Amino acid sequence: MPDVTDNILPRLSTPKLEGLDLGEGSIHPAYDGLSILNVPASLCKWLGASLPPHPPVDLPELDGMAEEVQQLVVVLIDSVGHDRFRQWIDGMAPVLDPKSEHCFLAALTSVVPSTTSSALTSLWTGRSPAEHGILGYEILLKEYGLVANMITHAPMAFEGPGGSLYQAGFRPENVLPVPTLGKYFGGTDIEAHAFLHYSIGRSGLSRMHYTGVETHMFSGLADLWIGVRDLAQDRLDHPRLIWVYYGSVDGVSHRHGPNSERARAEFTHFIQALLQNFIGGLSTAARRQTLLLMLADHGQIPTPNDPRYDLHKHPALVGSLHLLPTGENRLAYLYTRPGRVKEVIEYFERTWPQSFSLIPSEKALTAGLFGPGHPAKEARDRLGDLIAVSKGDAYLWWASKENPLLGRHGGLSPEEMLVPLMAVRLG
Fold this sequence. Notes:
The protein is an alpha/beta fold. 31% of the residues lie in helices and 18% in strands. The chain is built from 17 helices and 16 strands. A seven-stranded mixed β-sheet has the order 2-16-9-1-8-6-7, with helices on both faces. The chain has a four-stranded antiparallel β-sheet with strand order 11-12-14-13. Helix 9 runs parallel beside helix 11 (261-278) and helix 10 runs antiparallel to helix 11 (261-278). The longest helix is centred in the middle third of the chain and has 18 residues, at 261-278.
């Protein structure tokens, strides 16, 4: 099987959403078959479950590789864009060589916004961000009267332990307006397992996604991959999905930059452990019945610290807003005071020329930027009045603390939006 990336990239680089100025070179989400939104339908199809409403991945080669497979091992490496994955995986092992007949590599787009809370929710529901309503890292929960962090499930500026939203009646298992994949598997004989680090195994986001899925918590890479190997070698009486989530590359890339030596070393360490403790110890019988898929939820772009983007230095702009921006540093939702929309647009054009595109939120939602399907009833409240789409390495910083990030995501650059999908037949 080939590396088909070069054939697919022209399709992914062609603008798909009419009437939206997303900036030159921006990647529009390919929700019609070449997005991570389409992966859940493919998984359900291969496992024999009913399908979510959006189409499977439009790559016939993948369907061929999944034939006669009873077990899917799906590995999500958070925040590794396609180009970095392609470069970093090169030469690591023959089994992961996309030029070999048993391996396949393609590029997909992330969803918008290209961020973990939105992307993972799409991967575990088969629904677009518009439909499931998790539209960013920090979003206005009007029904609870606050802006919340959708990773920690705490108020936006809260520095304490996560989960404090539960005191307001927020229940992760019930907050989504759409079913999760665990419900698609319910009533079938499909086994579904998820391997998560101990630090997030019982988090609110995990409780939101993995209802009906057996979770396994790991402490380190050896613990992870030996656990996956042992489960994969258990007798297969029914189709089995094994999901692995690994988030350390994302954290290192935020702190040190996605092109840093540390980020690449973290990725390399992870893949070497996979090769040694999983693939290297897997029996011949288990190899024959297993398809390994590796993908990412989004990428990252380097964002050198630039005080110009610190909103504490722009009180006139903040004064034109009802509240500080929400969403993502690179895809911010602005809630303007009455009659101030033109003033806000002019401020951006005057202060940061060529650094942002400002789009009416309703126009972006209607045009399909956040995906197909009927939007969740909360979606419009969560998008504000204007969306500030970053260009180049621009961003907005509004937190009342030091800005520590040298890598960011959430925007529409190729580095953030293009992600890998590698499939490997192990035997």
